[in-house]
Amino acid sequence: MRAFLFPGQGSQAVGMGQALSAASPVARETFQEVDDALKQALSKLMANGPEADLTLTENAQPAIMANALATLRVLEREGGVRLADKADYVAGHSLGEYSALCAAEALDLPTTARLLKLRGRAMQAAVPVGMGAMAALLGLDFDAAKAVVAEAAQGEVCEAANDNGGGQVVVSGHVAAVERAMEIAKSKGAKRALLLPVSAPFHCALMAPAAAAMEAALADVVLRAPLLPVYTNVTAGPVADPDTIRRLLVEQVTGTVRWRESVAAMFAAGVTEFVEFGGKVLTPMVKRIAPEAKAVSVTTMSDIEAFAATL
Questions:
Q1: Domains present along the chain, CATH in parentheses
Q2: 11, 125, 144, 195: which has the highest count of C-beta atoms within 10 A?
Q3: Residues with catalytic annotation?
Q4: What's the confidence (pLDDT) of residue 217?
């Protein structure tokens, strides 16, 4: 069995999609479709920067999605591969869940782009700059990290935002609480604790205004049953019902990204091959979580050709 995976924020880089666009008219059409949906030259920003603008959450989120979907579409249309024939599940990390839903045709591409633009803006606007922070705790398992954030909160928000597996847990919340969590984690045996260069404290209670914005936006969106089940961040289990997916996308904004559990559950369900489209962040995570499984990253034209040859 095989799962197709889609990366989250942090996968953006100036130049992303440029080589693929030069090599494939399908990729160019995909990027143009996103540009048209957003009424923005996002593909130009992806290709040329500046990096500071590309890193803005409202740009990074649709850019990462566009790059992943362009990669998949080249495989499908030029390689003659159908997602539903070659994958059993899809999953994405945070914003990557939207990419996964688009790949499985639960959402169309223009709608996905607009939702991620709005999501990025709403997440950025939810917390004043300088009020929140995120940090990676390395060398603690999830239960230990949850104990750390509970001790660090002291009346403020401090929560486990991403359970990435392999002893990597990202915490999120008020700046002072996150800084306390870093010190407590070190005292409890964490190998490292480092602040992340993010613009807002994602996946914690401080994102409640963004969750409300997404609930309003998703209420009016056509969301179909996906071609194959989606392992969601909130449940770490497969979901195919559109109304349930809609609700979970709202909960995802403030909820923990249960990536370790999602990968472990897919592996337990029989997935032996994980294929990441448009990024190289999830592949090493998968190798740490399910070392017996095969994990590959597909980002370039040569990657696409090599992967197609294995199907």
A1: 2-126+206-310 (3.40.366.10), 132-198 (3.30.70.250)
A2: 11
A3: 94, 203
A4: 97
